[in-house]
Write a structure and sequence with these properties.
Radius of gyration: 33 Å
Strand order of the largest sheet: 1-3-2
Number of domains: 3
Order of helices and strands: HEHHEEHEHEHHHE
Number of helices: 8
Distance between the termini: 31 Å
Amino acid sequence: MPITERLTEGVRAALARAGLPEPEACLWEVPRQAEHGDYATNVALTLARAARRTPRQVAELIVKHFPSLLEVERLEVAGPGFLNVFLSPAWCTRALGEILAAGDAYGRGESERGRRVRLEFVSANPTGPLVIVSARAAAVGDSLARLLRAQGAQVTTEFYVNDAGTQFEALARSLEARVLQELGQPASVPDNGYPGEYLVDLAREYLAEQRGVSAREREGGSSSSSGASCVTTGSSSTCGRRSSAMCVTSTCPRRSWRSLRRASSRTSTRARSGSGRPRSVRR
């Protein structure tokens, strides 16, 4: 049992012995200053009206009737009626030894045994750069899952991979415009698109990656079915394969980007015709 629950039991027992009403809740906090004890509560202040006594009188009655507990060395009344609790050094030493002996098993229990929990977290927005909130959500969500599992719960964690739908298609069209701009071709971001500068950087990274693949294939002696390799530099007229709007070389930035766009459109169509919800990843 947590120490705060033990202290709450003691407070309730003291109030009952003093003939005072029970509180709905007894909240504990760790004082900032060591001279104020290990734990403190304002329960006397919250009960003053119901008890028809001053908060300090209620606190003094709690101290007077507080039962003997191995965990508690002494109690003190502070200020207008705050109750400060000082833990027993002997009990703290014994508790620390038990914690060290338990090792990784310390804190585990069965309070949530039989409970099934599905915990969804992160679900980062795919249309923009990751932010610190996503990282924080990942840490908090994973910690919650571990805590629940440590108490016996059957936990499934998941996050939505939002790679389908209208907004993702708008992102694809926006990135396509940035790629074409980097290739020196006239293009503009759609009205419902994403004008962020991060797409400019992404387009440059994409083109550099695709050109790197082409260079490695040429160095390795690979070629297309007709024996020619694509040397796209930005204008359709300089493409070594053909001057039409769509290159057929597998590593050409223009072709692979259009393939990505068509794949995105097909994914969006499936999402709209299905449940309308993005897929999720579970573990």
